[in-house]
Design goal:
With about 250 residues, this protein is α/β, with parallel strands linked by helices. The chain has a single domain, classed as Rossmann fold (3-Layer(aba) Sandwich). The protein has seven helices and ten strands. The strands form two sheets. It has a seven-stranded parallel β-sheet with strand order 1-10-9-6-2-3-5, with helices on one face. The protein has a three-stranded antiparallel β-sheet with strand order 4-8-7. Strand 2, helix 2 and strand 3 form a beta-alpha-beta unit.
Length: about 250
Amino acid sequence: MLVIIKKDYEEISFEGAKLVASLIRKKPDCVLGFATGSTPLGLYKHLIRMHKDEGLDFSKVISFNLDEYVGLPPSHNQSYHFFMWENLFKHININPSNIHIPMGMAEDIESFCEWYEAKIVSYGGIDLQILGIGSNGHIAFNEPGSSLGSRTRIKTLKEKTRNDNARFFKNFEEVPKFAITMGVGTIMEAKRLILLANGKSKAEAIKATVEGPIMAKYPATIVQLHQYATVIVDKEAAGLLEGDYST
């Protein structure tokens, strides 16, 4: 696992975007795993700029998103379908038929999750998966206690996670209680991982992820076992780390 500490959010976003852009240039039909939430927004802004200013070509890229709320239609302004289109897809030349996002309105969620897993496999797996991390150590919606070998499935969201996401809704009661998420095992099968984190609120989770024991209490700790995992954090998120890391 490579840990890179940068000065601030802007720097970690640019560092992550450079890694994604490098892969796209080397393998135009690469399979990218996208994340939502506030953390990857800066990275996506840099990818948009690279597309517009440098000709970064997404026309052959295949994408899979980590998760989606159960019960929210794609048109809902807090769905992750809506998020991805507003913050990335409509600004680049990705082929809509190459975009895959969990369907929160699926009638048979279990069957959908099996289909999603098979679809990833059909493209040869994810080449690079972008990750954020929750303050409680979750990755995607794999909450503390999730099986480290889990696959795409429906998960009940912890109150901590719902509280963290409540700022995006009118009130706490509107925050969905369930989500479809790629499993920890699914994420670990990606050929490369990039985990981004910024701010003091993520310092404890990053400390556990990078230097703590691997345990289901902090699902993100599993990235220690990935051969090609890169953790990019700002100085505040790295504030509790004790080791010497790249800058």
